[in-house]
Design a protein that fits this description.
Shape: globular
Number of domains: 1
Distance between the termini: 33 Å
Radius of gyration: 17 Å
CATH topology: Jelly Rolls
CATH class: Mainly Beta
CATH architecture: Sandwich
Largest sheet: 7 strands, antiparallel
Order of helices and strands: EEHEEEEEEEEEEEEEEEEEEEEEEE
Number of helices: 1
CATH superfamily: Jelly Rolls
Helix content: under 10%
Oligomer: single chain
Structural class: mainly beta
């Protein structure tokens, strides 16, 4: 597969539109909106559940005929505070009207429906430290397996300090062989501080039939259809990313690259 690195199509409005067919896979969909006060975004997920994540800024959110009011608090994700998020079931209209400059992520995956629209954060999302040394990073688990809040979607935020590695040791989740490993497609929405910096992400399989190393810029999206996918933040550059995963089973089970398995002990 080529075209794993997706650049934004503009600076405002809907700057990413990545439905499954555009990614060349079956489950994960991702959109990214950058709105000025008074501007709106909306959608009607036919056969798909949605988690709206206010990455930064505030917006008035409505979904499934309910008004959830003005949501959002952090003006920058690098505060590492938990995000305001909303779950929207399939076949229900949602709408966001920006009340400040805001960045809204729209994460989607197949769902049979039946769950109600509900607020997922910031309550219930706790910042978790993971790793040691220069592999230390910080996680906001928005909708991972421990929260029964979705049928397919797994969504999380990761904050990687400058000079650190993340999504590391290299690992993959590209086989449907539960409980050993699960098949999960994944998107990475990257942000950088300072915004004119860069980060590094490599996506590669054990046999190197897929092996792409990308310099990611602010607002870039990386697709991970298979293989390992570590990230690195250069000295002086903080890295944030929003992960969206989905597959035939809502469970995150992975295999570490054999060369790095000793780091998991």
């Amino acid at each position: 597969m080529t075209g794993l690195l997706r650049r934004p199509t503009g600076e405002t409005g809907r700057i990413h539109t990545i439905p499954p067919e555009a990614a060349g896979w079956a489950y994960v969909g991702f959109e990214l909106w950058r709105l000025s006060p008074g501007e709106t975004a909306e959608g009607f997920p036919e056969g798909r559940e949605v988690i709206l994540v206010l990455v930064e800024g505030c917006a008035q959110l409505t979904a499934a005929g309910q008004d959830f009011g003005d949501m959002g608090a952090r003006m920058t994700m690098f505060d590492r505070t938990p995000p305001h998020c909303l779950y929207v079931p399939p076949r229900q209209h949602w709408r966001a009207r920006a009340t400040t400059h805001c960045t809204l992520a729209v994460c989607s995956a197949p769902s049979p429906g039946g769950r109600p629209a509900q607020v997922l954060g910031p309550e219930g999302i706790l910042l978790e430290e993971r790793g040691t040394g220069t592999n230390t990073r910080y996680i906001n688990n928005i909708a991972m397996e421990g929260r029964d809040v979705a049928d397919s979607l797994l969504v999380t935020e990761v904050f990687t300090p400058a000079g650190h590695w993340s999504s590391y040791p290299p690992h993959r989740h590209d086989e449907d062989d539960f409980p050993r490993i699960t098949y999960l497609e994944e998107t990475y929405y990257h942000r950088l501080n300072p915004s004119n910096g860069f980060g590094i992400q490599r996506v590669f399989t054990d046999d190197l039939n897929l092996d792409e190393t990308m310099a990611v810029a602010d607002h870039d999206v990386v697709l991970v259809p298979k293989g390992h996918h570590p990230c690195a933040a250069p000295h002086g550059v903080e890295m944030y990313y929003l992960n969206v995963m989905a597959g035939p089973r809502r469970a995150w089970r992975f295999q570490t690259h054999p060369a790095f398995a000793h780091l998991m002990i």
